[in-house]
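Late entry, written up from scratch paper. The run itself happened at the end of the previous shift, but nothing got recorded in the book at the time, so transcribing now.
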Amino acid sequence: MMETDSSFAQETMKVLGRDWIYLIDSGGQPQFHNLLPHFIEGLSTILIVIRLSEKLDNSPTVEYYENGASTGSHQSPLSIIDTLKCLIRSLQSYKISDQKSKLVFIGTFYDQITDTDSLTEKNQQLYDLFSEECLDQLVFRNSAKNELIFPINGKLPCEPEKEIARQIRSLIESIPAQFESEIPSRWNMLEVFMEYTSTCLQRKVLSRAECLELAQKLKFKISDSEDELTNALRHFHNMHLLHYYPQILPDVVFTSPQVILDEITALVKEVYRVRDSSGATIVVDYQLRRGIITTASLSKFQRHIVEGIFGPTELQKLFIGLLIVTPISSSQDKNDHSNKKFFMPALLHMIPSADLEMYRVFEPIQPLLISFESGLPRSGVFCCLQVYLMKELKWKLVYTNTEPKIIAQNCVMLAHPREPCTITIIDSFSYIEAYVSSKPENYRRVLPLIRESILDGIKAANQALQYTCHDEDQPRLTFFCPCNQEVSANPPQRHIGKVKEGNEIQCSVQQQSYFDLNEKYTKWLGPVISGKLLQALFSRENTCGIYMKQYSMQDLSGKILVVLLELSHPTSIAFMQVILLPIRTMASVCIKFWRDGSGLVKLQ
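Output as recorded:
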């Protein structure tokens, strides 16, 4: 480790101001919207660049470049409008507590616009995307005319472009600081020294040992009872100055947030790579296009690898810990430990909204919808949900021959590991839909179990993404309104209802209309009956004439003890009550009971 340059530190401290502005560049494809929330929190301003020469209803061609040369392209399955819906969801996801991100639209290729009506139409289309609650997050060029787009000619900027740049800069400078906190001056010096060390070493990844050496020179308190270095690194992480994940990679410090963003960008580009930077055709990695990454595929990205500190193994650990990937294996992979496989839903394509209809099945059971009081599901939650169900609950992809039957960023078909059913989950931007296919006699038992599994997955996803969930962000169970009135016909746009007490649902279009829910809906709302009776352990009659049977049940939380009590009456009327007692190991359980006047058993 080199000696820190005190003169450099002194000069740096002279220009350290109270307010800092950090700029982060990322891609606009849907893959990024599902991954960025893991690594970018609390953005004060989001600048969205759109091409004015294209219609917003068009599906654009996405081109990837490396060193100025095209390496691949693909036709986006989403229209520009659908992509912007992803961005709106990102806008909602990035807020810090009550402070909302501002959204600025910049339109390029203004010189190719020949019809002013075209710009007016685009402004109106963008304005119509937002609800009343979101309008205060928009930055208007002209609020009286609902003009959102700041049009520029980026290739030949003239005075109008310079004036727009000044307006945007003034806007950013006027936004209140998001982070105001008093910290020891040595913490500021540590951040400066880490930046300086990274520059000298020509890498943006340091080991914790290297950071510790710097901290010791600054007289940090490092002891068994107090670890000031870890506290400082966590503070810098929360301020987005760097990335530090002590629970996952305790010995790795990313001194620039751009490190992981570069790795994500490289992965997304690799999915669609068909030629190298020289223009030569290469072998397409179809595994990546199916969302499967391997140790070998991660080893291709050498830009930020630091031998002994950060490499493909550490990147795998980080992705697993943040619910970005789940390990997968097949029979042929069991003997190959050097090239592990992982499923990464965020790399998959998205199914266009109109095409999702073919995966919706409304008989014999209606789908469960999970909506959110605050609006759209947050970015990244659906991909994390897929990973959680597969990684933690062992749900499996459903295959046809050797290919997954349904697999996309916004739609997947999974099979339950113990119950005879398949589950299709759809992210339709406004809510999450769950469709289940099983035998009729299984629905009453299976549906509540799937409901709770999905809710647990959403909770785990919010934790992995470090989203702060207030009451309005909690998931709400509902259904499509039984009135079957479509808000729009192409593609079909149904509306949801609001479930009320007494198995009623209120129509969201005709507020005065209420409908009774039948079993196609209510089976979703029943109690959870976990597992199956596997083995009768014993049967005996105690002194009160009660036959007791004890069974073992397997659940995700451990073993469940089920006690069946049957009371014998002279009139041969049987009484049975089932009690579920969660326990970690099978053990004897004492239950006190007595008879009341009706002859029924009371439990204590």
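Residues 292 and 343 are 5 Å apart (CA to CA).
(Scratch paper discarded after transcription.)
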